[in-house]
Write a structure and sequence with these properties.
The complex is a heterotrimer. Chain A is α/β, with parallel strands linked by helices. Chain A has helices at 6-14, 20-38, 46-61, 103-110, 153-160, 177-183, 217-227, 270-285, 301-316, 335-346, 349-362, 367-389, 413-417, 424-429, 457-469, and strands at 41-44, 72-76, 114-119, 166-170, 186-189, 210-214, 257-261, 289-293, 394-398, 433-441, 444-451. Chain A has 15 helices and eleven strands. The N and C termini of chain A lie close together (8 Å). Chain B is an alpha+beta fold. Chain B has three domains: 3-286, no CATH class; 296-410, no CATH class; 419-476, Arc Repressor Mutant, subunit A, CATH 1.10.10.410. Helices cover 39% and strands 18% of the residues of chain B. Chain B contains 15 helices and 15 strands. In chain B, the strands form four sheets. In chain B, strands 5-6-9-1-10-11-12-13 form an eight-stranded mixed β-sheet. In chain B, strands 4-3-14 form a three-stranded antiparallel β-sheet, with no helix packed on it. A two-stranded antiparallel sheet of chain B has the order 2-15. In chain B, helix 2 (163-179) packs antiparallel against helix 3 and helix 7 (324-337) crosses helix 8. The longest helix of chain B is centred in the middle third of the chain and has 20 residues, at 220-239. Classes of the chains: A alpha/beta, B alpha+beta, C mainly alpha. At the A-C interface, helix 9, helix 10, helix 11, helix 12 and helix 13 of A face helix 1, helix 2 and strand 2 of C. The complex binds magnesium ion and zinc ion.
Chain lengths: 487, 477, 93
Amino acid sequence: MHTKSIKELHKLLTDKKISAVELAQHFIDRALKHNPSLNCYINILSDEAKQQAKIADDKIFKKEGSLLTGIPFALKDIFCTSDMLTTCGSKMLSDFIPPYDATAYKNLKSSDMVLLGKTNMDEFAMGSSNENSFFGCVQNPWDLDCVPGGSSGGSAVAVAGGLSPVAIGTDTGGSIRQPASFCGITGIKPTYGRVSRYGMIAFASSLDQGGVMAKSAEDCAYVLQSLSGYDKKDSTSMPEDVPSYTESLNNSIKGKKIGLPTEYFANLDDDLKQIITTQIKEFEKLGAIIVDISLPHTDLSVPAYYVISSAECSSNLARYDGVRYGYSAKNPKNLEDLYLKTRTEGFGDEVKRRILIGTYTLSAGYYDAYYIKAQKIRHLIADDFNQAFAQVDILLTPTTPTTAFKKGDKQNPLEMYLSDIYTVAVNLSGLPAISIPAGFHQKMPVGMQLISPAFCEHRLLNFAHMYQAQTDHHLQTPSQVPQEKIL
Amino acid sequence: MKYDVVIGLEIHAQLNTESKIFSLSPTRFGADVNTQANEVDLAMPGVLPVLNEQAVIKAIKFGIATDCKINNRSIFERKNYFYPDLPKAYQISQFEYPIVGAGILEITNEKNELKNIGITRAHLEEDAGKSLHENFTKHSGIDLNRAGTPLLEIVSDPDLSSAKEAVIYAKKIHALVVYIEICDGNMQEGSFRCDANVSLKPRGTKELGIRSEIKNINSFKFLEKAINYEINRQENILDDGGRVVQETRLYDADKNETRSMRSKEESNDYRYFPDPDLLPVIIDNKLIQNIKDKMPESPYNRLKRFIDDLDLKEEDANLLCSDIKIADYFENIIKIGNLKPKLVANWIIVELMGIINKNNKKWQDNKINEQDFATLLQRITDNTISGKIAKQVFAVMWDKGDKPDNIIKKEGLQQLDNDDEIKSIITDIINKNPAQVQQYKDGKHKIIGFFVGQIMQQTKGKANPAKVQEILKQQLS
Amino acid sequence: MNIDDVRLSADLSKITIDDKKIDSYLTDMQDILKFIEQMNAIDTDNITPMAHPFDLSQRLREDKAVAQIDRQILQSNAKNIENGLFLVPKVIE
Ligand SMILES: [Mg+2]
Ligand SMILES: [Zn+2]
């Protein structure tokens, strides 16, 4: 059951082979059983899930449902859910119950999807290994000693471990694609502005974007369709219509040009390079033309990314002062003490480090040298992509420089930052990108990234789907989680 | 004094929109605490700002009315600092690229000289909430109803050289924002507040001295006093060879002094940067033209016209032009009743505004429509009633909302115009007061007032006074 | 960057850095800044800074007020409320 695609689950539901309540229960049971070892959920919502499933059953009975009616999903704990704990992986919000829903969550609810639980994540989405969560690290189901990637590590593991058919994540610098790659699943980060950011707790506002993590590009397409769309509560969301992502899934990619940015392969580990080069042949089999291309400012993307994201986060996280919500230090001596204690005790080390860097780079005398400089580099990086897309339809790169690393392996923050080297340029440019499983290296999943021009998610999904239609990497399941048969 | 005084004003005019600048909360004043502060105003996690169209339009109106440059592209930036009345710990404001750029405002200063005051800029920003200190000993209470209310911050060049001049300039800006209906101008409620930057420099020198900023002055009287206090304070420091400290000061009206606000000084590196939640505001010239086309005659033109063409006193014209609704009311009454401007002006200023003030009401509470007001004044000019009776009728119109002609008829207030009737009353009174008649005949002509009074008393003021005088004189001689 | 810069940034951010930890913060931040300074390798004099991924303009919303959800619900996450006010330690102006 937990390995089935959304389409298959939909058929079982409409054929009345299973009810939405039973389906939800199946995943809740798996979640309750395996979460103690995987720690991918911060909160499993058994009662709420059954309630929502009942409503879905009602709709299916009345034949009012959509393709997503009754399909369970997991939601990164960065999305506000009214009356349900929303922690953002932080002590600061460990008791926060929002009085409103994130638009993204609202959209899925209105498609009658069933929320199973809120997934673990790096605190305030800052991290690439999920080791920065107040609620503990998440285990990679392919090797429990390895990290699942981050920050949407909980969402990736929920899908990879079969604890949810699909999960929602957010991606500021690779936080969907990198964990998808580490966990052997498919993860799409849409164009900036495609998915509303309202109610999605901000890390870096000009980079944050919600997206889908699932077993296949096809499943991503169904859910992204519902997740996307203009929201009048988000000034940066795009008013353009969302095209059908499923209609174009099977379009031929014959004659389409795939660009390989040389800078993304230059320093890549030979084994990984070998694996990805082999997979590129699959696209050639489909008739695509492979061309080399250059994105000359690639090596400056991580520096620019850290300046911009830290600057924005230092301001976005200033609101956590212990007054209106969230953690509040006990017995403060005075107002200043309340602020200092609350923030010092409520934030973890990585969050503090980034707030400090952000504050420093925005402060008098440094603003031009760091912040403005980074925005200029950002412009150059975006221009690189524009020029590339004048020549090719899509870009293909590795998603990460390595497969999932061992917990505790990267002690130096800088080393951790560099694990995002292939993903951050996409966020700086606002482009959509997808990570798809491309095989294994020493039994750990390898991911491959496709990048398209803005608002061409349908193209990403089309390429990814055509590839997955003739390969089976995405169908592999990790041995660490028992694949017991229920139902 | 051996110093030149240099003053610049930053005026915060609250824009009279229905909802806040970035949230859907209402902006009504005086609501119960924190009942007009939604999740966006409370800066809850995940919320986002969306810009109110009317805030932008009203800022543009100000730019048009002052002939300031309106920037086709402006940017919202974050001003970062921690303060309990600032829930996000940043204020969304404009910094490098304000919506309204430079312009000039001409004033007539206290020495009756024309003087150009430069407007540096006017930018949009959100207001903060309020910290309440009463009722608590160890705590302050935070009310966020005001947080997010749209403000237009109008910044002047340091062109003002006395407290009086600053007040004249501030009053002119005040009259303007009220007149173009972008601000209700209510200073007690904080809808119009001034910050004054004051510095002194040795007479005739170029280089500006170190300034202090006096914050949040909400009356013109206090503005004048605060600036004068500050000039004095700085003069004393400089005379003693000291240095003025650049700082923010608060004016204490009870003690008539300014004092340092240390709390605001602690962290003044505001780390402005473009708000990533908001995109650049692009205003095309077509929109500016559209707004311009719909805007009324400028208050300066109208004022000039009232003085030059309608022959009003400057003081009266100023009063009538203080609010576009008053000026329109005035001109409509003239037109409807084909009346003399001076008569109408007098009646509005003395009678109508008098009764409004006496009852502690506002202009908006005036229910007497233009047609009725015009009819009333016509009854004076066509001699149906005397001016004195008209006041009586007016009072009834205010109280009961009745039409003037109805009141005149119902209460029988028409002027007694019939010669015979007046004659018989006069004859009667003359007969009853022989002593006074004798006095008149002895040359004490002032005694005629006594007779007029008697007659008016008997006719309840309805006798045509001109006629009474005429007939009295005939009969007495 | 030196210890004072770390302290100033911490002060502006309202975060206390433990004396025992300040050296390690300083080292990390120095490394990060050095890394960031790679950006200086190229000349960007004629490049305009890019604050948003796309060259779009702000949409404006209609000026219409909507009543908020209940104050009590909005304040249910606050630790210190009295008569509808958020309480903070005394503000001294
Ligand atoms: Mg100011
Ligand atoms: Zn201001």
